[in-house]
C-alpha cells in the first residue's frame, strides 16, 4: 500500500529540517511508524536523558508539531493545565519536591543521550 502524501511530506521535512534535541526516524519495515527520541532540555529535571515515544500518533496534528510540544512541556511544565491532576497538585504544593521526583524518574526511566 502506498504511503499518503502527507506522511511523505512530513517525513521529508523532519529529515530536511531536524529539530535540535529531537530524533524522529521512520521504521525501515513500516514508514507509517517512527522511532522517536526527545532529549530533556538543559536546566530541567529531564536533562542528560532522552525519552522514547510510543508509536501512537493521530493525523490530526503534524508529527513535528507534536514533538515540539512535548519538548516544550519538558522544558516548562504547566501545572495549571495538567494531564494528571494529582501530579499538578503535588507540583503546586511542593515544586522542589516535584522537581526532585522528576529527576529521579528521569534517571530511572529515560535512556542516556
Q: Summarize this, please?
A:
This protein has 113 residues and is of the alpha+beta class.
Report the CATH superfamily.
Ubiquitin Conjugating Enzyme
Query: What's the story with the biggest beta sheet?
Result: 4 strands, antiparallel
Our Rg estimate from Cα atoms comes to 16 Å
The name of the CATH topology is Ubiquitin Conjugating Enzyme
Assign an overall shape.
elongated
Characterization of the model:
The chain is an alpha+beta fold and 113 residues long. It has a single domain, classed as Ubiquitin Conjugating Enzyme (Roll), CATH 3.10.110. Helices cover 43% and strands 16% of the residues. It contains four helices and four strands; from the N terminus they run H-E-E-E-H-H-H-E. It has a four-stranded antiparallel beta sheet. Strand 1 and strand 2 form a beta hairpin.
SSE diagram, text form:
Layout: H1 5-16, E1 22-26, E2 34-39, E3 49-53, H2 63-75, H3 85-93, H4 95-109, E4 111-112
Antiparallel strand pairs: 1-2, 2-3, 3-4
Organism: Chaetomium globosum (strain ATCC 6205 / CBS 148.51 / DSM 1962 / NBRC 6347 / NRRL 1970)
Protein name: UBC core domain-containing protein
Keywords: Ubl conjugation pathway
Tags for this entry?
113 residues, four-stranded antiparallel β-sheet, UBC core domain-containing protein, single chain, 16% strand, Ubiquitin Conjugating Enzyme, 4 strands, alpha+beta
Amino acid at each position: 500500500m502506498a504511503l499518503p502524501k502527507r506522511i511523505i511530506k512530513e517525513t521529508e521535512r523532519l529529515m530536511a529540517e531536524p529539530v535540535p534535541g529531537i530524533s524522529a526516524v521512520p521504521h525501515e519495515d513500516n514508514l507509517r511508524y517512527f522511532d522517536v527520541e526527545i532529549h530533556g532540555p538543559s536546566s530541567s529535571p529531564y536533562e542528560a536523558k532522552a525519552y522514547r515515544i510510543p508509536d501512537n500518533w493521530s493525523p490530526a496534528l503534524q508529527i513535528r508539531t507534536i514533538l515540539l510540544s512535548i519538548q516544550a512541556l519538558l522544558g516548562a511544565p504547566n501545572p495549571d493545565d495538567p494531564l494528571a491532576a494529582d501530579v499538578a497538585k503535588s507540583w503546586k504544593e511542593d515544586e522542589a519536591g516535584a522537581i526532585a521526583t522528576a529527576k529521579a524518574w528521569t534517571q530511572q526511566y529515560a535512556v542516556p543521550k
